[in-house]
Amino acid sequence: MISLTLVTERLGLGGGFYYYLEITNRLLKRGYDVKIVSSGGSPWFYPNNRVPIIYPKEPKLLKILSNILQIKYRQVHYFRGLDYYIILSKLLNIDFDFSRIMSSIIPESDLIITGLPSAFIWSFMSKKYKKLAFFPQGWPEYIYVLSRDIRWYLTFISPYDYYIALTGIETDLVKSTIKRDVKFFVVSAGVDTQLFKPRRRDNDDIKVMVILRPEPNKGAEVAIRTLNLLSKYLDFTAVVIDHGVLEKFRNEIRFKYEAYKPVSREKLVELYNSASVFLFTSKLEGYGLPPLEAMACGTPVVMTDNVGSRAYAVNGYNALVDDTHSPEKLAELIQKVIKDENLREEVVRNGFETAKMHDWERITDNWVKTLKEIEGEIKR
Question: Is 39 exposed, middle or buried (0-12, 13-18, 19+ CB in 10 A)?
Answer without folding.
Answer: buried
